[in-house]
Amino acid sequence: MLIEDDDDHSDLVRMQLADEDPTIELTRCASLAQASAQTRDCVFDLVLLDLGLPESDGLETLAEMLGRLDGVPVFVLTSNMNRELGVEAVALGAADFVDKHSLANSGLARRIAFAIERTEIRRRLENQNLFLRTFVASVGHDLRAPPRQIIQLTDMVEDSAGEEKYKYLRYLNDIRSRAGHLSLLLNDTLDYAIHASKQPSRQTVFLSQAVGQVIEDLDTHEKGRVKLMSDVGLLADPNLLFLILRNVIGNGLKYCQDQPSIVRLDGKIVPSGTEVEVTDTGMGIPEAMIEQVFAPTVRAVDRSRFSGTGFGLAIVKLLVEAHGG
Description:
Elements: E1 2-3, H1 7-20, E2 28-29, H2 32-41, E3 47-50, H3 59-68, E4 74-78, H4 83-92, E5 96-99, H5 108-160, H6 165-195, E6 203-206, H7 207-217, H8 220-223, E7 226-230, E8 233-236, H9 238-254, E9 263-270, E10 273-280, H10 312-322
Helix pairs in contact: 5-6, 6-10, 7-9, 9-10
């Protein structure tokens, strides 16, 4: 669909597409109102949008159209050689931008075909991710239940064994410990599978709010060991930000030598966005392991001294990257 109020410009686009690919079917609308009516009755593969329509002008036009479409790629048409406007449009969600005065050299039909193909691939991936999340959620309960039941049965055996239980107490504790580790491993594996395909929502969250939620979940003796040095606003998914900070702060408190560790968080605005620096006084990560610790199941500490599965930082990495970090 072409949304263009100027007849001459509309003819230019139509002729260019006909020259490049005669199989393209083009529906022209002269206003957003007409386009809105068309989208109610028809499904379009792509929208070519002029930013200078009667009802709205500039990026407001794009924002309004994106709000009415469900994942349909939008190409912005500019007529003033304003590349910066086109770049801004792409940043706001447009698939591409084209100067109407340079259509002959734009390869418009080819770019349209690529955009439609990318959109279709993205939709297939989203459907696959939805299936995986649904599957993991549906089997998650069944997978989590057996270790809990083993622990409960072990407790029942210990309670009913009377004086004889002391003969088997070491074995019962070993069963309980191994079942607990299995439960932790299953929980972290399922959480990793769920978050691997999760797309974050975006809203303004202050670092102090998110850190405060994590502190509320800590044991009493740990609450005073988390220090927020400076606050900052972040554009993030509040629930996923909580998971990120809970893992990072938890690691900082957990991995320490003789003295309790202090965790400090410092938020600041940088040219590329928002940066949160987390430091602690714990045992640290060996330099040779810094790149490896973000891989699933990798641990940089003595497993006999510290419990865990090695999924925490892997989940953190996934969630930070999902936010563009």
